[in-house]
Amino acid sequence: xxxxxxxxxxxxxxxxxxxxxxxxxxxxxxxxxxxxxxxxxxxxxxxxxxxxxxxxxxxxxxxxxxxxxxxxxxxxxxxxxxxxxxxxxxxxxxxxxxxxxxxxxxxxxxxxxxxxxxxxxxxxxxxxxxxxxxxxxxxxxxxxxxxxxxxxxxxxxxxxxxxxxxxxxxxxxxxxxxxxxxxxxxxxxxxxxxxxxxxxxxxxxxxxxxxxxxxxxxxxxxxxxxxxxxxxxxxxxxxxxxxxxxxxxxxxxxxxxxxxxxxxxxxxxxxxxxxxxxxxxxxxxxxxxxxxxxxxxxxxxxxxxxxxxxxxxxxxxxxxxxxxxxxxxxx
Length: 331
Ligand SMILES: Cc1cc2nc3c(=O)[nH]c(=O)nc-3n(C[C@H](O)[C@H](O)[C@H](O)COP(=O)(O)OP(=O)(O)OC[C@H]3O[C@@H](n4cnc5c(N)ncnc54)[C@H](O)[C@@H]3O)c2cc1C
Hints:
By secondary structure, the chain is α/β, with parallel strands linked by helices. The protein folds into 2 domains: about 1-120 and about 250-330, FAD/NAD(P)-binding domain, CATH 3.50.50.60; about 125-245, FAD/NAD(P)-binding domain. The protein contains 6 helices and 22 strands. It has helices spanning about 15-25, 40-45, 60-75, 160-170, 190-195, 295-315; strands at about 1-10, 30, 50, 60, 80, 85-90, 95-100, 105-115, 120-125, 140, 155, 175-180, 200-205, 210-215, 220-225, 235, 240-245, 245-250, 260, 265-270, 280, 285-290. The strands form 6 sheets. Strands 1, 2, 5, 6, 7, 8 and 21 form a 7-stranded mixed beta sheet that branches. A hairpin with a 4-residue loop joins strand 14 and strand 15. Helix 1 (about 15-25) runs parallel beside helix 3 (about 60-75) and helix 1 (about 15-25) runs parallel beside helix 6. The radius of gyration is 22 Å and the shape is elongated. The two termini are about 30 Å apart. The relative contact order is 0.16. Bound molecules: flavin-adenine dinucleotide. Flavin-adenine dinucleotide (FAD) binds near residues 12, 117, 296 and 298. Flavin-adenine dinucleotide binds near residues 10, 13, 41, 45 and 298.
């Protein structure tokens, strides 16, 4: 079992800044993120919006902020692992914690910092007949490898950034890609749209709802789609589909560990420690005192810094709670 001083759960903005702060305080940490990308809510909910309230940055696009947070988090080489949803937290007889990931892999850590925000972000489903039946054998929610799309006619459901990002990742190997969008307009970046269209393999179908995933029992053979203007229905023959219609949050629950909660958030004390000694929390998921907290990037960042300083002291009681100013560090 790999062993670390600290396990950071979640690589949203708070988890990423915590990773940087852990590096700053020379804490050996691993950051575990359930999704295939870091950036949490920023990348999933507002990648192209402009953020105006990050200290010292007058204006920045969500995706650029997420990229900067990742770059900063990687500064000291602390490990970040994607596609790693923490499914349970167990206590080891030695007093350390075992982090169970995706129901299998395990990591041994001395302390934990929970940065799981509004919960596990999971892809939204179409909620139509046939979808569940062909999940994994024709219905995909993410692109981890291009192999399932080789020489395939693919329908990407959702004409936003994620949809076009997936489409551009597989267009080199796919035969044809339809982008099926519910709205009459595409929401993706112009550059992503033109990248796909310039290959000659892309086609957009707008103002259209998916009604059913059709198959022969073993594989997908098409989708039933409805034109929202005249309600006409037709079958679009496709071999596979990628559903990219956004994400929703699911509350985390861990079989072996329970926390004190208030207003659905983990209660922390002035050291950012939860009701479980050795487990800390920062960002959108935590609450101190009884007053509701505003979920903001800057708030999560400040909490991350404070939590890491307290964790340093927890890990090494000789250490000072206050670290050096970063300006003193030579890179
Ligand atoms: C539309 C919108 C616009 C916003 N605009 C602004 C703004 O302009 N300014 C501002 O300051 N704030 C804004 N916010 C709020 C800001 O995005 C949040 O405060 C911030 O994302 C909180 O960061 P976080 O890291 O605590 O949580 P999150 O961003 O929610 O990240 C949590 C991460 O943890 C991961 N995770 C959860 N459970 C697990 C698990 N069991 N195992 C592994 N990983 C897990 C999730 O996949 C996710 O990546 C906005 C939010 C929204 C939705």
